[in-house]
Amino acid sequence: MDVDLIFKIAAIGILVAVLNQLLVRSGREEQAMMTTLAGLVVVLMMMVRQISDLFELIRTLFHF
């Protein structure tokens, strides 16, 4: 597994957590929730790409 991917996901998580806290303390709970959801979507898109690469590797290994 690529360590760079883990650091990218951790950086997105830290950024989203900080933004979430700032927005909640300023009374903008809706924007905080949208920021959290946007961070989740970004991470999920990164993971979908990795899973797709994994399936392609398995397909080439077993000649499907």
Strand content: under 5%
Extract low-pLDDT stretches. none
Provide mean pLDDT, rounded.
93
Order of helices and strands: HH
**Cα radius of gyration in angstroms:** 16 Å
| End-to-end C-alpha gap | 23 Å
* DSSP helical segment count: 2
Question: How much helix, percentage-wise, in residues?
Answer: over 70%
For the secondary structure, the number of strands is 0
Structural class: mainly alpha
Q: Identify the overall geometry.
A: elongated
The biggest sheet, with number of strands, parallel, antiparallel or mixed sense and barrel status, is: none
Word description of this protein:
The protein has helices at residues 3-25, 29-62. Helix 1 (3-25) runs antiparallel to helix 2. It is built from two helices and no strands. It starts with a helix and ends with a helix. The model has no long low-confidence stretch (mean pLDDT 93). The chain is 89% helix and 0% strand. The protein has 64 residues and is mostly helical. The longest helix has 34 residues, at 29-62.
Topology:
Elements: H1 3-25, H2 29-62
Helix pairs in contact: 1-2
Could you provide a short overview of the structure?
With 64 residues, the chain is mostly helical. The protein has helices at 3-25, 29-62.
